[in-house]
Amino acid sequence: MVVELITVGTEILLGDIVNTNARYLARRIADYGFSCYRQTVVGDNPERLRRAIGNAFESADLVITTGGLGPTDDDLTKEIAAAYFGLPLSFHPQSWERIRERFSTRGMSVPECNRKQAFFPIGAQILENPNGTAPGAMFGNGDKTIVVLPGPPSEMIPMFEAGVVPFLDAKHDGIISSRVLKTVGVGESALAELLKPIIDNQSNPTVATYASEGEITVRVTARAPDKQRALQMIEDTQRSILPLLGDLYYGQDDQSLEGRVIERLIERGWNLAVFESLTGGALFAALSSVSESTRALSRGWCFNAEEKSRKWLSETQGVNGNGALAFARAAKARAGSNVGIAVYTQEPQQATIAVSFPEWEVQKTVRWLDTLVKGRRRIVKEALNILRLEG
Fold it and tell me: For residue 236, which phi and psi values (nearest 5 degrees)?
């Protein structure tokens, strides 16, 4: 099967947004062994989008679009795709009700313009969107099929996995299974070099690396006559990969780094206190997002002003010294916890992470060249990884 990808959005043509959707979809299509010979980016222009869809179907059996499903007048992907197949749009009350409910749960009334998101080509398979207001759709004429997905990756990826993957499974002989191995503390190129002996000789299962914020994942995908055989192939490949990853590996599939840290704390019978002077509470927020965090997370303090941090430290009984370790000890003492961690900054674009464990202490300096927002994300990853490795 030949697949073509069309990304819709003027903001991508202008370079305001990186086209991560095409990268994700291209790799998932490759997982199935389907051919993708061309990708197109088109702005919010009806005529150019119409031509892009027509050109795609000259050679493709399946076209997947992302973007252009919003409520505004220039969001026309669904309408233009429907027109290509000569399909009229019909109102779908259930989708409209889900959109209304989404606004209602936020205490907001739904704008009338969002009503257009509840219209779909007659006969289309509607792809629900639990993360936004724009449902997707899949439709065609039997020989050719188009899938229209929303632009935000947080909406597109879950919709693709839940709604499109079963369609791809049906088009592929046998069973395809995947497992995601998660790593932290290494760049994608360095990880690819570590796995080069396996990647260079791969066929089935396939092994591919994917970069995300502060982490690199390794997707192992196997094709087999049945699920049991596919899973066995994945297990065999994973056994070859893990010794190469060493401590870089922390979990798989839905496991999160913060979740692994909480698990480690619970296993040890420890509880953690957190002090932050730069990250705006992001470290505590990440840890507290884990469902069982109340079993291991005691208290947190966050200060953005140096004088307030100093005052807080000076008022902590039994703690002397300065710097990040002093703040980690103070957090531990104030909370009566086993472990205290501090993120402390005195220099621009530089922070020190310190952890006071029951019987030992560690600290690390982190520097960054990007914006404060990206710097905070990196610091949180580094802090979590220190807790994982050193605890």
Answer: -65, -45
The β-bridge partners of 249 are 183
Higher pLDDT, 368 or 50: 50
82 and 114 share one domain: yes
Question: What are the pLDDT digits (tens) for 330-349?
Answer: 999 999 999 999 999 877 88
Domain containing residue 205: CATH number: 3.30.70.2860
Q: What confidence category does residue 32 fall into, taking pLDDT thresholds of 50, 70 and 90?
A: confident
For the segment 186-215, what is each residue's pLDDT rounded down to a tens digit? 888 899 899 999 998 888 898 988 887 789
Residue in 259, 309, 306, 280 with CA at minimum distance from that of residue 375: 280
Nearest-angstrom CA–CA distance, 177 and 328: 44
Q: Please identify which residue in the block is written with the tokens 């202008």.
A: 14
H-type helices in 246-281, by residue range?
Answer: 257-268
d(CA 79, CA 369): 43
Same domain, 295 and 334: yes
Alpha helices in 57-128 (DSSP H): 77-84, 93-105
Radius of gyration of the chain (CA): 25
Residues 128 and 216 in one domain: no
